[in-house]
Amino acid sequence: MTVLSMQEAAQLVQSGMTVGLGGMTLYRRPVAFIRELLRRPDRPTNLTLLNFTSSYETDLLVGAGMVGTSRTCYFGMEAFGLAPMFTEAGNRGEITIIEETEMSIALGLRATMSGVGFLPAFAWLGTDMLKLRPDIKTIEDPYSGETLVAFPALKCDAAVIHGLRADRRGNVLLNQHFAIDRELVLVADTVIVTVEDIVDDIGPHVHIPGVVVDVVVHAPQGAYPTSCYPLYPISGEEILDYVDTCQAGDFEKYVARMLSDEWYSAARVE
Amino acid sequence: MDFSIDEQMVVCISRQVEDGEILAQGIATPLVMAGYILAVATHAPNAVFASAIGQGLCYGWGPLGVATIENIALGNAVLTMGFVTIAVDVLPIIRPKEFFRPAQIDAAGNFNNIAIGKDYQKPRLRLPGTGGIPDVSIKSNDTCFYVPRHSRVTFVEKVDFLSGMGYHPARTRGSGPIYLVTDLGQFDWHEGQMRLTSYHRGVTVEHIQKKTGFELLIADDVHETQPPAAAELRLLREEIDPLGVRTLETLSGSARRDLLRDILRREAAAYKSVSSSRRG
């Protein structure tokens, strides 16, 4: 495990990679890392985002034209409505959307963890999902003869997780809102964890073991404006401002403000 | 006592809850959450929440919030599992009650949360996605729905994409949906067809049919929905949802945005006063 600056860590994401972002919708998302990707003069492009759910953090990358493919089971802003840039790109067919569900993501991760190419489940059958995902095949249960769906293994080049605390061994403490973070780190080639705090030893209750963590970045308020329970709640005003600015057609204006030093310091005062 | 339509819907949802049930709480569904909590605070004190936030089980509740929405689930959780474990191993076994909010629904209860429009590559409106709907609806015996704004946009002859399964010939497990509440009335399914069982105060059967894009069955004993009781309204307004988060689901456009801003302001004030009293 290496401790890197945010700037150094952001260089690890290359164009064309599949990246999994930790947390869920507006909770504990690695926003400071996303901000650093946006700050790069050579922004990576044609990324595939493999998230359990996508929201503000990935919508920023979609708006900046950095996402080729979105794989998730929900892309939206919860109480704040539709994700503005994803919705626009989706309506125009400017982004490849691979429909996932809770089951396809969960079993896809487990298949990789188990070292097999797929895991079967009774899901999707009779819905339009198999038409929208022609890459997914069905399989006959060898015991009962019932038709099942064979969900293919999922992995990613890099996983980026925001946690509460890490220690010198790279052990990480999340909060109790795990989403799929504990599995993402097992199927990623490179694991980057940004944390509110780095300590010598976080003790026995570890959520992500240091043995799978490659990079730790110190990032206080690193999930802002998403929440980092119990340290800070969602900054609703900021999320609402993002949605309003995008809907007014001013995505670039929002990003310019977000990349400013003032935004960075304001996030840390709130 | 006067009541608003969101309060009527919350009370209808609450009355669907039986004591001791496991209640699945989805993402951004404050009307359902308010209904569940009202049930726990009245006739179903032993119900358990299976929350999408925290992916665990929790007892107890607090007032609804937007920015601090995690507090209810994470502050009261007795077990948190993560989404992989709860989706694959636990929810299929404990089979919680769940209310879905469809973007489109047909008479047989098939529903769509993928996109509106015939062309999947360039839809009229891309929707957030299906969550776990294609996983659970195909084996469910008791899917429930709620629709805060009943209109022909939602109630359609044929859904553009079928992500949730109703009474469908391809079904091999489970049966289909059993209950729906909208801002106009309550419905069940009779021989696989949606049927109006009650209309809310001030709404006519004709109006509901007019707002529905297919022929509705009407129950023989169709009647006015039982309105909220004074005690239910007091609990809802004063303890469960004093910020009025539930009302967000019935509004759209600038009215919704204004309310959201107002809720965030009042919630932040409440959050600050709690934080400072804890520090003090």
Summary, kept brief:
The complex is a heterodimer of chains A (270) and B (280). Chain A is built from ten helices and twelve strands.
What does this structure look like?
- The complex is a heterodimer of chains A (270) and B (280).
- Chain A has helices at residues 6-10, 31-39, 56-63, 84-92, 102-114, 129-132, 181-187, 236-247, 251-258, 261-269, and strands at residues 2-4, 18-21, 47-50, 67-72, 96-99, 118-121, 137-140, 147-152, 156-167, 172-173, 188-199, 215-218.
- By secondary structure, chain A is an alpha/beta fold.
- Chain A folds into 2 domains: 2-100 and 156-196 and 212-262, 3-Layer(aba) Sandwich (Glutaconate Coenzyme A-transferase), CATH 3.40.1080.10; 118-152, no CATH class.
- In chain A, the strands form 2 sheets. In chain A, strands 1, 2, 3, 4, 5, 9, 10, 11 and 12 form a 9-stranded mixed β-sheet that branches.
- In chain A, α3 crosses α4.
- The longest helix of chain A is centred in the middle third of the chain and has 13 residues, at 102-114.
- Chain B is an alpha/beta fold and 280 residues long.
- Chain B has helices at residues 5-16, 30-41, 70-76, 83-94, 133-136, 205-210, 230-240, 253-279, and strands at 22-25, 48-51, 56-58, 77-80, 97-100, 104-105, 111-112, 115-116, 125-126, 143-147, 177-182, 185-190, 193-199, 217-224.
- In chain B, α1 (5-16) packs across α2 (30-41) and α2 (30-41) packs across α7 (230-240).
- The longest helix of chain B has 27 residues, at 253-279.
- At the A-B interface, α4, α5, α7 and α8 of A face α3, α4, β9, α5 and α8 of B.
